[in-house]
Design a protein that fits this description.
- The complex is a heterodimer of chains A (about 110) and B (about 110).
- Helices cover about 0% and strands about 55% of the residues of chain A.
- Chain A is mainly β and about 110 residues long.
- Chain B has about 110 residues and is mostly beta strands.
- Chain B has strands spanning about 5, 10-15, 20-25, 30-40, 45-50, 55-60, 60-65, 70-75, 85-90, 100-105, 105-110.
- Chain B is globular, with a radius of gyration of 14 Å.
- The termini of chain B are far apart.
- The chains are: A mainly beta (about 110), B mainly beta (about 110).
- Chains A and B meet through β5 and β10 of A and β4, β5, β9 and β10 of B.
């Protein structure tokens, strides 16, 4: 069983909807990450939080909005998404910001 | 810009047939090279970290090695349960973003019984 839990596992939404993805880590880690995984493409880093402060916003469109209320929880708020945003969204955590990252099982997002 | 190229894209083996996966990388000073395994519908599972050329790590039927330009993941006498996509990633030593992992596209391994 993974120490990083993501909900929901699957999400279908229209382009005008607003939804949020949730990630919770039970590993006592201090850094958390959001990645996007699309078919035939490498994992793309989206956001990084260290000790609840955002240290990376990797040129991600503003329709994706992260939130890290504490070191155990990470959210990704979604609004006005595009069809090309359909992908697997993965959350990861690490003990410190440059340590091995441990991933959740992702949220499969489909934009209609 | 850091780059990771994995080959082959897909590999099909018979049970017991040993082989190797390749990860070639270009990075401005290597802090670490990471191997992950990803099963369908799951997130990547951490396998190994290698930090310097000549280093080797083993876990069950898997052995990872590292040179200054590439890493190999050797699979000895694979079993069907070793079927998965294997991902390689590098982390740069220098710069303000030394926490970033640059991933390759992965190698899809299928082991037939």
């Amino acid at each position: 069983e993974t120490g990083v839990t993501q909900t929901p596992r699957h999400l279908v939404m229209g382009m005008t909807n607003k939804k949020s993805l949730k990630c919770e880590q039970h590993l006592g880690h201090n850094a958390m990450y959001w990645y996007k995984q699309s078919a035939k493409k490498p994992l793309e880093l989206m956001f990084v939080y260290s000790l609840e402060e955002r240290v990376e916003n990797n040129s991600v469109p503003s329709r994706f909005s992260p939130e890290c209320p504490n070191s155990s929880h990470l959210f990704l708020h979604l609004h006005t998404l595009q069809p090309e945003d359909s992908a697997l969204y993965l959350c990861a955590s690490s003990d410190r910001i440059n340590q091995p990252q441990h991933f959740g099982d992702g949220t499969r997002l489909s934009i209609l | 810009e850091d780059q990771v190229t994995q080959s082959p894209e897909a590999l099909r083996l018979q049970e017991g047939e040993s082989s190797s996966l390749n990860c070639s990388y270009t990075v401005s000073g290597l802090r670490g090279l990471f191997w992950y395994r990803q099963d369908p519908g799951k997130g990547p599972e951490f396998l190994f970290t290698l930090y310097s050329a000549g280093e080797e790590k083993e876990k069950e039927r898997l052995k990872a090695t590292l040179t200054k330009k590439e890493s190999f993941l050797h699979i000895t006498a694979p079993k069907p349960e070793d079927s998965a996509t294997y991902l390689c990633a590098v982390q740069a030593l220098s710069g303000g973003s030394n926490y970033k992992l640059t991933f390759g596209k992965g190698t899809l391994l299928t082991v037939n019984p």
